[in-house]
Amino acid sequence: MSAPRKQIILGAYLGGVNHHTAWWHPEAGSQIDFSTFEHTARTAERGKFDFFFLAEGLALRERAGQVFDQDIVGRPDTLPVLASLAAVTTHLGLAGTINATFNEPYELARQFATLDHLSGGRTAWNVVTSFDAFTGQNFRRGGFLDRSKRYERAAEMIDALRTLWDSWDDDDLVVDQATGRYLARADAGSFSVRGGQFDIHGRFTVPRSPQGRPVILQAGVSPEGRDFAARSADAIFSPYGKLPAAAEFYRDVKARAARAGRNPDDLKILPSASFVLGDTEAEAQERYEEVRGQQITGQTAQILLEQVWNRDLSGYDPDGPLPDVDPDPDAPPIIQGRAFVHQDRFATVARWREIADAKKLSLRELVIDQFERGPFVGTPAQVAEKIDDFVQNDGSDGLIIGSHLVPWGLDEFVDQVVPLLQERGSLRADYTGSTLRDNLGLPPLPRRSERRTEDAGAAV
């Protein structure tokens, strides 16, 4: 008897501060107007997606002291956008990226618990940390922390929020039969959190939310990041969109979750992905080449490489060879406000030179080749098959789908690919749960009395 097909988790990603979005395209919509967020969310819900995901931009990026003109300028605050979307959707999860370095536990716990109530239990928090002092300048205390301290604060932040969310039980809010007023039990909301980062105690004001507590999302590539996510997250964003690297990451993180005492199935692996469709495979490939050309202009290629070289590369021809100079890691950063993901500049440049020589690639062609998001290209049937094969072969548990064209690009996927995934039995025909936690297949949370018994048993 064959094993049941894995059900594909789908998230919808609204592109913003990155080079993937063709924001200058004549058909592109506003990145700030609510209609953009609403259209994407409604389309995702029509396609039975699990959640809508918003990234975060806390500072206007700069190049050599000037505002970056290769990114969208402006990103509305995440939580008000998600709260507004809660009013125009019914089943779709609402996932927001909020920085653990620049926020305090009590404030953040109240905001997410409130959103979870407003949405009927559909909230998720994507936990990120600060990566540079440049972004921290926007905040009262700066906020930049060394790598080890960032993870320490983030781990304590998650524990603190869970403590606050768990300070209420499902039946701690009761109705007084005589007056009809809601009353809280004597110890409801009591909390105390003490650690290296936080020392807070009091009474939490927001009762238990419909899904108990919001879903926790996290991204981690380094060993520390993988361990952190394996211990703390309900889902982790994977940077790998192709087999076999994706399957290796999948096995590694699931194994770390098991070593942390968790059921590996309770940690979902979700890489981001894009798509390009065509009536024929040749047409889809032609469209893909056109899209990549729009995304990676000569100036975009220059700026993406400048972050690694940390030099002004404007004097190099984008259609010529790679720069013949070495990186300058000791100079002041030429690109500010963009996360640096390459651990070793010199090793990265050496590898890129080998690839460019082997494939006969220009500077711009090298960027197109290396800054790939893992697109699924082909006819709708081919894309549905590729996605299904990727997930069934444990490349992931699902995908975060984005499009270069905001907000209309997702419509094509929902109209043409989603029905084929449903026909294959890999995507539900309708929502089966009432909360995001239900729809993701995450285990139910224990009641407070059960948690106390577990904690007492763990202490023995």
UniProtKB/TrEMBL annotation:
One Gene Ontology MF term: monooxygenase activity
Record keywords, A-Z: Flavoprotein, FMN, Monooxygenase, Oxidoreductase
InterPro entries: Diverse_substr_monoxygenases, Luciferase-like_dom, Luciferase-like_sf, NTA_MOA
UniProt-annotated stretches for the region Disordered: 438-460
PANTHER family for the chain: ALKANESULFONATE MONOOXYGENASE-RELATED, C2H2 FINGER DOMAIN TRANSCRIPTION FACTOR (EUROFUNG)-RELATED
Amino acid composition bias (Basic and acidic residues), ranges on this chain: 447-460
Protein name, as recorded: NtaA/DmoA family FMN-dependent monooxygenase
Domain Luciferase-like: 28-392
Domain of life assignment: Bacteria
Family named by the database record: Belongs to the NtaA/SnaA/DszA monooxygenase family.
Enzyme Commission code(s) on record: 1.14.-.-
Pfam families: Bac_luciferase
